[in-house]
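Final report, section 2: Outcomes. Of the targets proposed, Glutathione ABC transporter permease GsiD is the one most frequently requested by collaborating groups, and we therefore present its record in full.
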Amino acid sequence: MSVWRDSPRLLARLWRRDKLSFFGVVLLVVLVLLGLFGAYLPLGDPTKIGTGPRLFAPSWHLPFGTDELGRSFLPRVVQGIRSTFLISAIAVVITAVIGTLLGMLSGYFRGASDQLIARGADILFAFPALLLGLLIAAVMGPGEISVVAVISVATLPLFIRVVRSVTLGVAGRGFVTSAEVAGASSWRVMFVHILPNIMGAVVVQLSYALSIGMIIESALSFLGLGVQPPDASLGSLLRQGSAYLTIAPWLVLSSGAVLSAAIMSVNLVGDAVRDALEPLKGRSLT
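The predicted structure is given below as tokens.
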């Protein structure tokens, strides 16, 4: 049985039963499409100053109002969606590649390599993400590259732990032993026999790492260490709006609501994928 062949059918069945998960999927798709193609929609220029009065309340023509420079806030929120998703996704993909490789090496070879990788993950896990952000920003300077590095380092230890755990369970299975007896190399065993059987756990952890990455990106941008003006992310928009919270609360409410919706949708999709792959536990995919 193949995860990729059976997962769509299982997910579709789950979504028909779970309306909340279905809502999360629809919301995530809408936000991702809005972030990808929002620049081509007639929403206005996110950097154009004087589109309307300064700190103008939401109206029919300016649904999210304007900021302190008179810029329409709706296109800036759309730009923020793209920045937050893109930065978090790039960082999490890097984490997934490195974490999956290290986790499989640790769980399959065990011994000294297992101790080295596991202890290294424990050391990284001990550092708070914000402290890492301050250290990396001090070395590399604030900006998107620093945020990607912080997210990757912060989410890597848990990714390694999850992959190592499931690899330990799969490495002792009969089909792995048969491949080893047949003379298959260690790399072939890992990538042909073990990797397909742990992809379910990798995909689920990937979705949760994405939500964590969005939280970290928003926190760092809120502190001024992430996306720099005139570009915007949801975190930097929250920082911008917090200065005018008492006179223009719509700046914080709009960007905060969108950020909350994005994180919630990613978590709901992760729950849906986990529940859909649950029946596949303990079954060989090769």
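Confidence is low (pLDDT under 50) at residues 279-286.
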